[in-house]
Automatic annotation (TrEMBL):
The lineage of its organism: Bacteria, Pseudomonadati, Kiritimatiellota, Kiritimatiellia, Kiritimatiellales. InterPro entries: Alkaline_phosphatase_core_sf (IPR017850), DUF1501 (IPR010869), TAT_signal (IPR006311). It comes from the Bacteria. This is DUF1501 domain-containing protein. Pfam families: DUF1501 (PF07394).
Length: 422
């Protein structure tokens, strides 16, 4: 719809807020809010989460569980790290120098071997069910812990897939605010130069007058939710904290360190800026791991550079002890390497996850596989991983929350924190 508030062909402030509200709130599907008494009782904790999601199924054998000299391991060599006795793929020379800040879980196991179902399980801790959508870890954290910086969204996802679960059955305002391109930040969030401050406020007041009659006539939770999110967006636009979304304020050397030409690397840089500014949960997605017909060397080296830069940066800035960093994927890849292409098919029986920061015990390997085929020791399920992250963040993981349909849910379902990690 055209609006004189912005030029034809350009998104204006109102359009920006509307789009964000629609994507984050799902207006029209029964939005509702947290009880104020519950919000006041939220625990006071500053633990944060950066969740790096490798979409498509990251090969464990070619990354964090190499088996050099075997047919399963193929041509990939293993290299030493700064922790004696721990080796990872040769594609991770930068991460090898940060191994003391990380733990590799080599005994992950999933019940889902298809992308959509595996992606859903890794993001929610629950197998998909046709009757309900479950929340992500970020949304659970918003429910149980709330924002740290009231001026910024508490939950953000960078480059999400089209099937991202957001808040699930929880109040929609707890869902992640999506950022499409880290290099562009939070787009259309500044007042156009050709609209002065008075004109801007006049437009907002006029819009409020028009909308008030609609709100009175259709007094529904979804409409109230939309208005609240709209008001928060206006507050953010007028806040100095909006600068947190601008990675171009970083030095050229810092951008190069993360991978200047890498969208994922710049996403990790943005994640660090947001965490530093008081955003509680940030997810960054790196796609392209569905490597049926190729060796994922390029993707692995991209992850290596960004992950190492992020861990060192968080450590240097005093943020690592309060920030949990997770590298996760929906499943691994088949140990039976395709000799003609060096690709691998889906494999849910065994794969790897990396975790560090936030009080996690690091510099260790948890679990093992029998050359990548099956979990040979200390099986860890995806609900276990969620329970571990939730516990490390300070969430009451066993606290039951009822969905609108009257069904009980909690963080990590029936999972239990992984021994030796927290």
């Amino acid at each position: 719809m055209n609006n004189p508030f912005y030029k034809a062909g350009e998104l204006g402030r109102r359009s920006f807020m509307s789009r964000i509200a629609k994507s984050a709130l799902g207006v029209g599907v029964g939005a509702h809010f947290i009880n104020p008494a519950l919000a006041a009782a939220l625990p006071n904790t500053d633990k944060k989460l950066i969740f790096l999601y490798m979409a498509g199924g990251m090969s464990h054998l070619d990354t964090f569980d190499p088996h050099p000299g075997t047919k399963e391991g193929g041509p990939v060599k293993a290299i030493g790290t700064n922790v004696d006795g721990i080796q990872i793929s040769e594609f991770f020379p930068h991460t090898a120098k940060q191994m003391d800040k990380l733990t590799v879980i080599r005994s992950m196991y999933s019940t889902q071997g298809a992308h959509q179902q595996g992606n859903y399980l890794m993001h929610t801790g629950y197998d998909p069910r046709g009757s309900i959508v479950h929340p992500t870890l970020g949304s659970w954290s918003m429910l149980h812990q709330g924002k740290i910086n009231p001026a910024l969204p508490g939950n953000i996802v960078i480059a999400p897939g089209s099937d991202y679960p957001y808040a699930g059955f929880l109040p929609p305002e707890l869902g992640a605010v999506p950022i499409g391109d880290a290099g562009k930040g939070l787009q259309y969030s500044k007042r156009p130069g050709w609209v002065n401050e008075q004109q801007y406020h006049d437009q907002l007041e006029l819009a409020n007058v028009f909308d008030s009659r609609f709100r009175e006539k259709y007094s529904q939770r979804s409409i109230t939710a939309y208005q609240k999110f709209y008001d928060e967006a206006v507050t953010l636009m007028e806040s100095e904290d909006l600068a947190a979304f601008d990675i171009h304020q970083e030095t050229a050397a810092t951008k190069v360190k993360y991978g200047e030409k890498s969208k994922f690397g710049q996403g990790c840089l943005l994640a660090r800026r947001l965490i530093e500014s008081g955003v509680r949960c940030v997810e960054v997605t790196k796609g392209g791991w569905d490597t049926h017909a190729e060796m994922p060397e390029e993707k692995a080296r991209d992850l290596d550079r960004a992950l190492a830069a992020l861990m060192q940066d968080l450590s240097d800035r005093g943020l690592l002890e309060s920030t949990i960093v997770v590298v996760a994927t929906e499943f691994g890849r088949n140990p039976e390497l395709k000799p003609e292409s060096l690709g691998r098919d889906h494999w849910a029986k065994a794969f790897s996850t990396v975790i560090g920061g936030g009080g996690i015990k690091t510099g260790q390997i948890i679990g093992a596989t029998d050359r990548g085929h099956e979990v040979a020791a200390d099986k860890v399920t995806i609900p276990d991983l969620h329970a571990t992250i939730g516990t490390a963040m300070g969430m009451p993981i066993k606290k039951v929350v009822m969905s609108d349909s009257g069904r009980p849910f909690n963080v990590g379902y029936k999972g239990a924190p992984v021994p030796g990690l927290i």
